[in-house]
Design goal:
Layout lengths: L4 E8 L4 E4 L5 E15 L4 E15 H8 L7 E15 L2 E15 L36 H15 L19 E2 L16
Parallel strand pairs: 2-7, 4-6
Antiparallel strand pairs: 1-3, 1-5, 2-3, 3-4, 5-6
Length: 194
Amino acid sequence: MSEAYVTVTGNVGTEVSYGETGAGVPMANFRLGCTERRYDRERACWVDGETQWLTVTAWRALAVNLIGSLAKGDPVLVSGRLRVREWGEGEARRTRAEIDARSVGHDLTRGTSAFRWASGARGQPPAGAEPAGAAVRGGVVPGWIADALEARKASVAAPAPGPPDSAPPVRAVTGAQVLVSEGEPEGGGQGSPI
């Protein structure tokens, strides 16, 4: 059976939530708001259409990198597998669209971004870092993730090279909400915090 892969543009609608499965696999998710813009010929102006809300879930290295890279309101492009979840509440049926993200990036048609390599190979914690999940279960972010957030704050606060007026304004990073999830990533996010 074919799977539906999509690429969606929109804005981060919530803070990125970080958690780990019972096996210590990093996961993160956020809500993505996608609003259609169309030209209204009668009024001769652009108008907003209906906003569609999707839940974006990321695993492993992508999950870790999301918490140090995205903030609420950021314009992003998300590419991944589209899933529509259905469940029942009494006699009512509910559905929710989700994207199991394979890649996420800032939408550079709306601003600039500066790429930084993740510490450790392929976004894994640096050698000697505390085991993933140990501190999360206690309700705090693991040390190596806190270090990554601090490094992002420092790079955001550092003046950009070049003439002072050439640097675009940059938003400060807020902390990540820490959630613990039971279950494995198999099935696209069982036990998803959002």
